[in-house]
């Protein structure tokens, strides 16, 4: 039986595109549904272009709507890939251990409410860190707090701006997220990656 993944997006959906591509050769896993809180999210177009059902929440704070939409598509795993709203607690509880988020920093550093997009990379640069990266973790009731499954590492270079750093981190996200989802599909549920895949080394 296929492992069915729902991906939630609020914006452009480059991680969604990477995931669709990464699952192309996985016979037993597929992106079965894309959900968004924004009708104009670029990720919805990417889903439709790939023939994947793409739906917009009437009310993203309504747990029944989440559970109905995911239940209708027999979703095994929910992936938050640039989804900027808090997931209702009942949904977190229902999908505990079966919901992932990707964050563009090395959690527990530079995460939490309000830490998204450019702000994350500004905070990394302001901290003087020599290294940053991306994290895939299980979702719990707080932003960016659940158990870490995998991280990629990216060197902070002299002269980096939030934009240059964001671009290099994003490139690693596009390998990291499919690697975690493929591992979850093969294991039947999310598992920590034993080591960072070599292609992610910067
Ligand atoms: C990524 O940097 C992800 O880590 C963060 O939001 C961004 C989404 O980018 N949670 P995209 O929509 O996948 O291009």
Describe the structure.
By secondary structure, the chain is an alpha/beta fold. It has a single domain (about 5-185), classed as Rossmann fold (3-Layer(aba) Sandwich). It is built from 6 helices and 7 strands; from the N terminus they run βαβαβαβαβαββα. The protein has a 7-stranded mixed sheet with strand order 3-2-1-4-5-6-7, covered by helices on one side. Helix 1 (about 15-20) links the parallel strand 1 and strand 2. The N and C termini lie far apart (about 35 Å). The mean pLDDT is about 95. 5-O-phosphono-beta-D-ribofuranosylamine binds near residues 14, 102, 134 and 170.
Outline = globular
The CATH topology comes to: Rossmann fold
Cα gyration radius (Å)? 16 Å
Question: CA-to-CA gap between the ends?
Answer: 36 Å
The chain-level structural class is: alpha/beta
Beta-strand residue fraction: 15-25%
Total helical elements: 6
Which features does this protein show?
7-stranded mixed sheet, alpha/beta, 7 strands, 202 residues, 6 helices, Rossmann fold, binds 5-O-phosphono-beta-D-ribofuranosylamine, globular
């Amino acid at each position: 039986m296929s492992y069915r993944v729902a991906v939630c997006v609020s914006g452009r959906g480059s991680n969604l595109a990477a995931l669709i591509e990464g699952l192309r050769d996985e016979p037993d896993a597929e992106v079965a549904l894309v959900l968004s809180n924004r009708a104009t999210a670029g990720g919805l177009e990417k889903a439709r272009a790939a023939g994947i059902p793409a739906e917009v929440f009437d009310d993203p704070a309504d747990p029944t709507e989440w559970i109905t939409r995911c239940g209708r598509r027999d979703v095994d795993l929910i992936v938050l890939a640039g989804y900027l709203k808090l997931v209702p607690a009942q949904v977190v509880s229902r999908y505990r251990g079966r919901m992932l988020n990707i964050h563009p920093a090395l959690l527990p550093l530079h995460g939490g409410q309000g830490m998204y997009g450019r702000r994350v990379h500004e905070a990394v640069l302001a901290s003087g860190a020599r290294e940053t990266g991306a994290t895939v973790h299980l979702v719990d009731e707080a932003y960016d707090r659940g158990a870490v499954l995998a991280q990629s590492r990216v060197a902070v270079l002299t002269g980096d701006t939030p934009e240059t750093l964001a671009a290099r981190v994003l490139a690693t996200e596009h390998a990291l997220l499919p690697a975690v989802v493929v591992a979850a599909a093969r294991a039947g549920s999310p598992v920590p990656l034993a080591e960072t895949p070599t292609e992610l080394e910067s």
